[in-house]
Every structure is written in C-alpha cells, then in structure tokens.
Golgin candidate 2
Amino acid sequence: AESFDEECDYLFKAVLIGDSAVGKSNLLSRFGKNEFCIESKPTIGVEFAYRNIRVGDKLVKAQIWDTAGQERFRAITSSYYRGALGALLVYDITRKSTFESLKKWLKEVREFGSREMVVVLVGNKSDLAHHREVNIEDGRSLAQLEDLSFMETSAKENLNVEEAFLQMITRIYQLSC
Ligand code: GDP
Ligand code: MG
C-alpha cells in the first residue's frame, strides 16, 4: 500500500452524489480500507478522503468528496463540484425513488460539473437482491443512454466497490494525462 503523503504524479478530485442513505459514505470507507485518510470540513458540510492508487507507472492521489448528509442543501453545490473530474452517481437498488432521482442528479452534474466529468453509475446494496426494486437492466440501459459506466455494488459485502472507484479513476487518468 502507498502511504498517504508519498509523492504523487497526479491529484484528482472526484465526488460522491446520489440521494441520502443510498450508501455513499459506506462505499467511501470501504474503498479506503487502511490506506485512508478522512478529513472533514463541517463548516461546509463535506468530508473528503484521499487514497493513492497506482495507474500504470504513475501514482495518482484521488481526493474523494462526500456530502456528509448535506444532500438536500443546494448551497454547497458549486464548491462541491468545483474542479471535480469524476463522480460516482449512486442509487439504492432496493429503493426505486433513488433511481428516479437520477434525472435530477444528472441535471445537476451537467450544470455544475465540468464538461468532461467521468460519471460512473452505481447501483448499491446488491446484497439485498430479495428487496430489489430496480432491475439491473434498468441501470444498464440508463447508463447506456447517458453514456456512463455502470456497476452494481455492495458496500456491505465489499462487492465491486474497488472496481467502481478504479474504473472512474482509470478513465479520468486516460482522459486527462
Ligand atoms: P449515504 O447517506 O448515501 O452516505 O448512505 P450511508 O453510507 O450512510 O448508508 C445508509 C444506510 O445503508 C446505512 O444504514 C448503511 O449501513 C446501509 N448500507 C450502505 N451500503 C449498503 C450495502 O451495500 N448493503 C446494505 N445491505 N446496506 C448498506
Ligand atoms: Mg453519507
């Protein structure tokens, strides 16, 4: 594992977005494991975490912002998105309403995010398949329509979490380095 303050070649900012309680914070702490550092800025209602990742022969430091429960407060929106090159857009496969909100989130991404922002659509809580309200095909076809990557994850069972973040970070790297 790379240490937190090791020299890095690139620094990327990415954001977590999606309705409350879809599992954003759990995805982030799962992605972090021990090589992780969480800082918070309670004043603006965000938390962020760093992790160093090797992409090819480069060391990339990903700084990932989380909304710390401020999803409904639009005031933080522009500072939240400023400079972000990627986003994980998360819904909960057991709550259809969180999938229906994606339209609103995508509108916000287009309004506040950079034009080339890499967005990975994430259907979280795949371990709760018996309570599923959103079919995997619906996630997949929305992603296709909106030109996003797509993955179902379980933060609880650590399924596909690493893959979702790495896909976003690798894609950012390919586009901007
Ligand atoms: P946030 O508001 O989007 O940051 O969501 P949280 O990370 O706080 O999670 C909201 C709730 O969903 C918590 O009770 C978590 O324990 C639960 N949760 C998060 N991810 C998963 C998951 O993959 N599977 C299950 N079963 N529960 C999860
Ligand atoms: Mg949270």
About this structure: The two ends are 23 Å apart (CA to CA). Residues 91 and 99 are 6 Å apart (CA to CA). Residues 20-26, 124-125, 127-128, 154-156 surround guanosine-5'-diphosphate (ligand 1) (CB under 6 Å).
